[in-house]
């Protein structure tokens, strides 16, 4: 009897152990789900399924970024100071020798302790960008100079470890998002790699020249990281891609934008970046944008950017212009000239009328302050946008972008000087549309009681005549006399008082 009880007890115990182990096994399986296959693979066809211009980006119209870094310390020439200080025939070289000494003795890395950013206030910057009307903002994460503007483990040459000893990108990211803006980080570091390692045989695609006796040809492993003087494959694997990955992982940028020379990065690394960024965004439910400047990424997955230039026709896809608030360098230099607020606004309106977005650059000082003349221009434009922004944000191009005597040249950066000289007047009109509304934006002040004719509404231009319900001038409560004629277009009379000296918006409501 005792033997039977003992056998029964043993069976029950074994059954209990087996059941527990089976339950634990199920728990382990439950805790370790099978990893999902990434949505995007490292090939252009797969990556091309990405929506390159999500609605939030199309509607944003204006973003602000800034060229700010170690090159802001000498505040001379331009952000290309790190390169030009090594070229004996260049004015920057002569300036550097006179003020700091020979570049073999005082190298670019010697400016880093002088870059202190002691007055940098991320909240003030985010306030300013928001008041200027920007819907996204962020830093030049790294220029050609090899110095990272974020807290980096990839390179010791970063703002958290040297110079300011603050995570500039991290502090700004928090404030930008608090202000309801999206984050852009721009990368110019594709040009940092030295493509020639023979003394005196400089490759113009390299930012730093490989020169004997200079830090640019040093065997010091740390200096090589800054000056891009290292094995190419090692640089692609351990520097170029890891820097992008680090910023994506730490700050979740909504836009990653590339400067030129990206096409010199081998295709497999460009594919690797795009797949990683898009898959990470997919995990987070984030709609992101990749900006490119040349034919180095397919437009099926990226937005085309035109530096200091823009289209002279309506873009069939959303595109971008990057331009600077200044008349000279992109970074702060002494006596830096600044564009008039109305010229920046007119550029923005022209871009928006053609389905474009403006990425506007500002130029802070090395101490972290933004010059007053730049602030004034941003705030004046922002005040206009606060009042009349319905004609800009969330709009799209009408059947024509506009009318008037001022014409934009063709081309990209090669014609940037011609674009810089463009000056619009109140004879130039740009159109946008939203729902059942057409906005005619006159690029300048409209005289009181002036008779106007919008020729784009004439039948020979519009072909399919529209039925207008109402016409009004934004910023005025006066009733407007207007008449729609198939021959002339839309004739109307301006209010009895001048509305705005920067630009005047006519709101035309059509029948539904």
Fold and architecture overview:
- This protein has 512 residues and is α/β, with parallel strands linked by helices.
- It folds into 2 domains: 44-391, TIM Barrel (Alpha-Beta Barrel), CATH 3.20.20; 425-510, Immunoglobulin-like (Sandwich).
- It is 31% helix and 16% strand.
- The chain contains 14 helices and 16 strands.
- It has helices at 2-31, 44-47, 55-60, 81-84, 91-99, 122-131, 168-178, 221-227, 232-251, 267-284, 341-352, 372-388, 416-421, 459-462, and strands at residues 62-66, 136-142, 182-187, 255-258, 289-292, 303-307, 319-324, 356-362, 402-403, 429-434, 437-442, 451-454, 468-473, 482-485, 489-493, 504-510.
- The strands form 3 sheets. It has an 8-stranded parallel β-barrel. Strands 9-10-11-16-13 form a 5-stranded antiparallel sheet, covered by helices on one side.
- β4, α10 and β5 (289-292) form a beta-alpha-beta unit.
- α11 crosses α12 (372-388).
- The chain starts with a helix and ends with a strand.
Summarize the structure.
This protein is α/β, with parallel strands linked by helices and 512 residues long. The chain is built from 14 helices and 16 strands. Helix 9 runs parallel beside helix 10 and helix 11 packs across helix 12.
